[in-house]
């Protein structure tokens, strides 16, 4: 009972500080688009058998989105209009590269950028769907970094002779469960983790290439940046600012590597705060994971959090993941996620008929005009 009361108080408290809006605005942000994870059900089952992944993880349904996934997603988004007659928006936070495993096994870090990667695996129609979503304004990517991998740490682990890492790489998988001294790498998911100054300098170049190639692939500059797994150092912010980023997602706890194998953590829940560089920071204040928690529970939780955001005149910024909406491992997984999304949007519109749908870029621009 006391825990639930504390959670309710915290939910209200974190929505108090920050820039207020005179409209009820909802933004849906979905991480991990563009990144390779699982390629099929058989891939998943093989990795579970060899102990590389857990049999119970929600990520076990994640895999590169397909053209048909996006078509089905767009059907849901276009079926809902806001008070201004605009369709619902989903902002995909995209990783614009994947690892060239063959070159990594040879000791070289060589990312395959999104358009080349799609050509390699025969999925060029996917990029066509991206462009349709961008043109219509319902699916406008923002940056989630380059590859969703701490490639420099992964390469060092492989070169040190770690058999689990090697076995995973031979299966075209780079996020094995890790123990002992490698546990800090969190299965190599946080791409901006570093242990030393050399790695930190390398990551400066990763950010530059991430944003440069984002522009080349999609035809515009990313204006919003979301670090992977909450791991990021403020020393990287000037590069973001120089390359056209206006806003950065700072949800919940931020983990800043100290360069000596540890991390310092801090919280930032101020919505729309502008720093000395001119970058806006904001928090995702709503969670929506229908396939992890079940659609009914996910919608109840999301609506409660949306109520709190609107009560304090803040935008409701929903956090979600691609694993809810992809069919690479299971078509049923995608359909369940889309059904949950459809029901959630209907619930929002029923309770708040004056709601406005925005993308992350539109919210960032709104703040820029206000301040």
Describe the fold and architecture.
Helix content is 42%, strand content 14%. With 371 residues, it is of the alpha/beta class. It has a single domain (2-41, 64-148, 196-370), classed as TIM Barrel (Alpha-Beta Barrel), CATH 3.20.20.370. Strands 1, 2, 5, 12, 13 and 14 form a six-stranded parallel sheet that branches. A hairpin with a 5-residue loop joins strand 10 (273-274) and strand 11. Helix 3 packs parallel to helix 13. The longest helix has 22 residues, at 197-218. 46% of the residues are buried.
Overall shape: it is globular
> Architecture in CATH?
Alpha-Beta Barrel
The amount of beta strand, in percent, is 5-15%
The count of strands amounts to: 14
Output the CATH homologous superfamily.
Answer: Glycoside hydrolase/deacetylase
Beginning-to-end CA distance, first to last residue:
41 Å
> By helix and strand content, what is the structural category?
alpha/beta
Catalogue the unreliable spans: none
Helix content: 40-55%
Radius of gyration: 20 Å
- Biggest beta sheet summary: 6 strands, parallel
CATH class division: Alpha Beta
What's the SSE pattern?
A: HEHHEEHEHHEHHHEHEEEEEEHHEHEH
Q: Number of folding domains? A: 1
Mean pLDDT: 93
What is the CATH topology assignment?
TIM Barrel
Q: How many separate helices?
A: 14
């Amino acid at each position: 009972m006391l825990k639930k009361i504390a959670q309710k108080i915290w939910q209200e408290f974190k929505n108090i500080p920050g820039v207020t809006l005179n409209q009820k605005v909802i933004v849906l942000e979905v991480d991990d688009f563009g990144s390779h994870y699982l390629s099929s059900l058989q891939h998943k089952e093989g990795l579970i058998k060899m102990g590389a992944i857990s049999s119970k993880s929600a990520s076990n349904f994640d895999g590169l989105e397909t053209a048909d996934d996006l078509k089905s997603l767009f059907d849901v988004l276009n079926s809902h209009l806001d008070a201004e007659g605009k369709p619902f928006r989903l902002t995909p936070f995209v990783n614009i590269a994947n690892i060239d495993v063959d070159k990594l096994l040879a000791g070289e870090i060589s990312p395959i950028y999104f358009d080349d990667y799609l050509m390699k695996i025969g999925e060029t129609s996917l990029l066509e769907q991206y462009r349709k979503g961008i043109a219509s304004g319902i699916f406008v990517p923002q940056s989630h970094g380059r590859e969703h991998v701490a490639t420099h740490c992964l390469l060092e682990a492989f070169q040190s002779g770690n058999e689990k890492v090697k076995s995973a790489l031979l299966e075209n998988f780079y996020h094995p469960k890790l123990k002992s001294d490698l546990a800090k790498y969190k299965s190599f998911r946080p791409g901006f983790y570093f242990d030393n100054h050399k790695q930190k300098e390398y990551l400066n170049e990763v950010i530059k290439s991430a944003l440069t190639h984002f522009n080349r692939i999609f035809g515009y500059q990313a204006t919003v940046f979301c670090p992977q797994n909450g791991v990021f150092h403020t020393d990287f912010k000037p590069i973001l600012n120089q390359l056209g980023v206006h806003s950065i997602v700072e949800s919940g706890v931020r983990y800043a590597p100290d360069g000596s194998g540890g991390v310092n953590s801090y919280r930032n829940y101020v919505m729309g705060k502008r720093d000395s560089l001119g970058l806006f920071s904001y928090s995702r204040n709503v969670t929506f994971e229908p396939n992890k928690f079940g659609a009914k529970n996910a919608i109840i939780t999301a609506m409660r959090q949306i109520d709190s955001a609107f009560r304090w005149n803040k935008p409701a910024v929903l956090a979600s993941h691609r694993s809810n909406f992809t069919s690479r491992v299971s078509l049923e997984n995608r359909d369940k996620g889309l059904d949950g999304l459809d029901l959630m949007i209907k619930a929002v519109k029923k309770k708040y008929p004056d709601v406005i749908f925005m993308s992350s870029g539109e919210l960032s621009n709104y703040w820029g005009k206000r301040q």
